[in-house]
Predict the structure.
Amino acid sequence: MSKSMAFEEPVIKLREKIDELKDIASKAEVDMSDEIQTLETRLKQLENKIYANMEPWDRVQVARHPERPTTMDYIKEIFTDFVEFHGDRYFGDDEAIIGGIACFDGEPITIIGHQRGKTTKENIRRNFGMPHPEGYRKALRLMKQAEKFNRPILCFIDTKGAYPGKAAEERGQSEAIAKNLFEMAGLKVPVISIVIGEGGSGGALALGVANRIFMLENSTYSVISPEGAASILWKDASLAKQAAEAMKITAQDLKGMGIIDGIIPEISGGAHRNVIAQALAIKECLLEELTKLRLLSTTELIDDRYNKFRVIGEFVEL
Amino acid sequence: MMAIRNFISLNRKKSKGGVVIERKKEHEFPADLMTKCPECKKIYLTKELENNLKVCPNCDHHYKLTAWERVNYFLDKGTFESLDDHIKTSNPLNFPAYVEKVEVDVAKTGLNEAVLTGVGLLKGERVVVAIMDSHFRMGSMGSVVGEKITRAIEKATELQIPFIIFTASGGARMQEGVISLMQMAKTSVALKRHSDQGLLFISIMTHPTTGGVSASFASLGDINIAEPKALIGFAGRRVIEQTVREKLPDDFQTAEFLLAHGQLDAIFHRKDMKEKIATIVKLHRKGGVSNV
């Protein structure tokens, strides 16, 4: 565990103490196994307590953890024969979104996802997972390709948002996102979206007009970042922690509001602690949902997607 | 229309010399008798401005319009029937004082939310219109705005007629969180159905059209039009400046900037709007255009 988050400090400290004690015990050749046993039990209890009672802001930290698994990590674990396809055919190849085809459960599938970097160098190349219009246009191209060859589409959502930059505006960031919402509505194949990290606003939604939407337990999905919300609502970005609660951005909140279909449980402490196990949990969810969606006709799939978004909204009708 | 044109030119002549207000006498006028253009600073009679479709006779600055002013300028007189005025905003995230703030704008604008929708005639052609009003919570989109626009689109689909929207919005409504975000998807799936029936959608972007509204229905017109100088963009100028740390051109995110970058079909002056949109609608009439 190289990078710890503030809320899990007590766990980290205790674990370090235990390791220290083990080290001393082995060097001094004394039997400390009882004491170590006691401490390890306490560590388990502490872990359960802390990781089971995470505040929204704690989950934001987990969702942003630098070692949190990315789209590519999950692709490697869940699928075979992945072939990446590049470019939007108009302008360039935006590496903040990756996509391609692979094999899943003996069938072809199209996979598209936001892609953050793990290192600074990779993050610069991938623009920290914040796409330009060409990223969204590449995604749409691959979706239409999937539709032509009648294979389902899986989208991994993991972005702070669409990139706010001069070039992005010049090339039509708004139009690129809007077009994806519009075209995804009409796709004749099953579409599943899974939020694996941060689901930042329109930049996330542009891969999110799906038949089924799932979120990893510690992921977030929001109209604006907690920092942005705090600075707009209270003119103070340092109130992000409060905004994270007020804006209702956690998987639990979105499930409660009926916006997402389900929560994929995470490894205690966060997905980054065990990518393989986390990938397995995603795989199981995907298998189950895809089996159900494959039973629907083209019309049913489109109607299902329409009805899903048509009912979102809270108002009073007198 | 000719009558209005004559009126406009008449007014232009009148304003050539400008209007001089003597300081001492200022308080004797009703406060709203005169208006100072925020762009060119010229002062003229408010009546003169109103007769000119609220476009500065001197510098062509297009003032923001209320939704009802737009109805009066755009549709045939007395043909507009509004829809869904009864839907009211609730407070899904329990934001303090949210509904109260909305109520203030309800009283101020006479609208139930930041968009007015309805059916009317545009030079004899039946159309569904949605007109956003930036005087209402900056035209931001929450559940009611999303719902009213979606119902308007569905109405147009049901009646098999064109849908026309005038956008004016700062984007998604913060106080309704991710529900506001989802209105982008809701309106877009409805537009897809309308489009699949071969029906016409014209989006007219007015000042300002930004954020989630820009990144959904505003950009999805079969034909995308804007008013001159309207601010249109995805991200706010300040956010971009902070991100890229470079000076942005003065015309950045204006309608003219978008047109130059291939993002718009055309910019129409307000005085031509009705005429030109009506022509476009007629050229899409099902069953031929011989009697245009």
